[in-house]
Design goal:
This protein is an alpha+beta fold. It has 10 helices and 6 strands.
Amino acid sequence: MSVQVPQSVFKFFKKLEKNNNRDWFNDNKPEFKAAEKEVKVFYNAVLDNLNKHDEVDKLKVFRIYRDVRFSKNKLPYKTHFGGSYNRINPKLRGGYYVHLQPNNESFIATGFWQPEKEDLLRIRKEFDMDDSEIRAILSSKDFNSIWADHFIGDEVKSAPRGFPKDHPAIDLIKKKQYIFTKHYSDKEVLDANFINEIDTAFKAIRPFFDYMSDVLTTDLNGVSLID
């Protein structure tokens, strides 16, 4: 039996959007807890699928409470669920994320959100030396059948310090993040096949993860940095 996102989750968030205050939330907390319980079943089913073809050591379902201390938006509650999955470190790098939000705002994401300074420099140096392998992965038929045009992430304006602006791989070198995202409509999210759609997409990212993990666990000479 397929595990799916229940309609009750989106119904709750649509009501919360119109009543985003502590009094309303406290009065309707049982409804929230029921929705949260069902969503955690879904997130854990995604985890089970991932561990059939990858090695993921942790699922984190983010809390609904917003940190408003440094935000102009003082609404106390998020109107979405977010779940992240970390691959087993140090030998495997990268992670997965599933965002569930009504009004066609749901998406999945994968890749490297905020690489550590040392990791980012190691990636850039790899592309500086040879960008043929990463380009072969990004242009492959299987990869592009799902992730074409979904490669995003912040970039520096021209070139990072120490790299020439006219480098053939400058489009990759100037990135500060290496993220892929794919958006879904409410109808797609609530469909029974959505969990399989997620798994198919996450399977397709593996060549990218395998390459990046190899880069980040070796030095520029290919010597392993881990035991």
